[in-house]
Amino acid sequence: MNETITKRNALLAKTVIKGLESRNMKGYYAATKEEARELALKLIPENSFITMGGAMSAHEIGLVKALQEGNYRFIDRDQYQDKRAAMLMAYDADFFLSSTNAMTEDGVLVNIDGNSNRVSAIAQGPRKVLFIVGMNKICKDVDSAMKRARNVAAPINAQRFGLSTPCAKTGSCMDCKSPDTICCQFLITRFSRHTDRIHVILVNDNLGF
Hints:
Layout: H1 3-22, E1 26-30, H2 33-43, E2 49-52, H3 56-60, H4 63-69, E3 73-74, H5 83-88, E4 95-98, E5 102-104, E6 109-113, H6 117-123, E7 128-134, E8 138-139, H7 142-160, H8 166-170, E9 185-189, E10 198-203
Parallel strand pairs: 1-10, 2-3, 2-4, 4-7, 5-8, 7-10
Antiparallel strand pairs: 5-6, 6-9
């Protein structure tokens, strides 16, 4: 990562973490992917029951592999024939791993979901939710975060999943009602009622979409 960008990210992360703290959420900053992975593993006790949504960022920092190889009860829904059963396990997990489609400078998380298992688990159920967030996801405010989620994250994910949506073909949100749409549920997380439930690791890197 460019030294100038790294300096900017470190300063911006301080603002984001302060915003998270004002919203009863805990924030951390990692200068590298490796540092982010080690920080996450410090936050997750061994033998923890862990599930996740489709968090590419957790894969990119090597966290998923570390959990699979470590002393954890990690549920990989892709290994289950009954995907619904695997998704339902999330609601009683010790930790739910996620990334976010976008996040504001003052600590608001914005997420869009198709099946809605991810946003529902973020909102309620798992004892703790751990977000892995690249600094490329940080936006000025909720409006710009929503635009990022709809015009950057959603089209890329629709293409990644091979879906037949207008955004997959144009690269931009068309506010569609396609049967394949992944923009079914919108979740804006502006405060955590439960102390120590939501943790966010900001990473000095471009992660996810």
